[in-house]
Design goal:
Length: 247
C-alpha cells in the first residue's frame, strides 16, 4: 500500500507542473484522495461487502467531488487532475498511465446487467468535461478533447474532438515520455471548421461553373456583378477568420 501511495505521488509530479512538494500532493490533491479511497472501496466490493463499498464511495464523493464506483477496474499510475465532477461507472475499465481532467464522465448506456461503461486502454488522456459513454474502447495513447462526447470505439493513438466525437488525427508517437504526458491538448483540429471549409470550396466551384454559362456582363450590369463579387469575397473572408478563431 505504501509503495502504491509513493507511486501515486510521483505520478502527480509527472502529470501536474503545479506540484511543488510531496506534502502538498499528499494533503491537497483530491484526485489522489479519491483513488486511495476507491482502493479501499474496491477491496470491500471484491469481498462482497457491497454496501460498505458504496458507502465509502459516497463519502469520497462528498469529500472530493469525485465519484468512482467501487466495482470499476483501475490500473496503475492513474491520475485525476483537479477532479471536481468526475464520474466513473461500475463496469468501467481503466488501464495504466491514464489521465482524466475535471468534469469527465465514463457513463453507461443500458439497463442490462452487463458491461455498459467504457474501457480506457493504457496512456489515454481525457480532457475536461468530456463524456465517454457506453461499452466502447478508447485505444491506447489516445486523446479525447475537452467537452467531446464519444460513443464509438476509438483506434489507438488517435485524437478525438467534437459532438459526436470525431477522430481528427492519428499518430505513432507516445503521449508519455519519461512519465510526463503531452500537455498540449489544446492544439487540436476543428472538424466543424474543416467541414465548412470544404463547403465554401464547393460553393466557389459551383459559382465558377455557373459563370461559364453566362456571357461577360457589360456596363451597369458588370458594375453590379463586381459589387456582388466583392461582397461575397468579404463575407467569405469573415467566415474563414471566424472558423480560424479570429474575429
Amino acid at each position: 500500500m505504501l509503495n502504491a501511495i509513493r507511486e501515486d505521488i510521483r505520478t502527480a509530479f509527472d502529470r501536474d507542473p503545479a506540484a511543488r512538494s510531496s506534502w502538498e500532493v499528499l494533503t491537497c490533491y483530491p484526485g489522489l484522495h479519491a483513488i486511495w479511497m476507491y482502493r479501499l472501496a474496491n477491496a470491500c466490493w471484491r469481498n462482497r461487502l457491497l454496501w460498505l463499498g458504496r458507502l465509502i464511495s459516497h463519502v469520497t464523493r462528498w469529500l472530493t467531488g469525485i465519484e468512482i464506483h467501487p466495482g470499476a477496474t483501475i490500473g496503475r499510475r492513474f491520475f485525476i487532475d483537479h477532479g471536481m465532477g468526475v464520474v466513473i461507472g461500475e463496469t468501467s475499465e481503466i488501464g495504466d498511465d491514464v489521465t482524466l481532467y475535471h468534469g469527465v464522465t465514463l457513463g453507461g448506456t443500458t439497463w442490462e446487467k452487463t458491461k455498459r461503461h467504457p474501457t480506457l486502454e493504457d496512456g489515454v488522456i481525457v480532457g475536461a468535461g468530456a463524456k465517454v459513454l457506453g461499452a466502447i474502447t478508447i485505444g491506447e495513447q489516445s486523446r479525447i478533447g475537452a467537452n467531446s462526447v464519444v460513443f464509438r470505439d476509438v483506434p489507438e493513438h488517435s485524437t478525438v474532438v467534437g459532438i459526436p466525437g470525431t477522430v481528427v488525427a492519428t499518430a505513432t508517437g507516445s503521449l508519455i515520455e519519461d512519465g510526463k504526458i503531452n500537455l498540449d491538448h489544446h492544439l487540436l483540429d476543428n472538424p466543424v471548421a474543416e467541414a465548412l471549409g470544404h463547403v465554401l470550396k464547393m460553393i466557389d466551384d459551383v459559382n465558377a461553373r455557373v459563370d461559364t454559362f453566362h456571357p461577360q456582363p457589360e456596363g451597369e450590369k458588370a458594375r453590379k456583378v463586381d459589387e456582388l463579387d466583392k461582397d461575397r469575397i468579404s463575407e467569405q473572408e469573415k467566415l474563414e477568420r471566424f472558423l480560424g478563431g479570429g474575429i
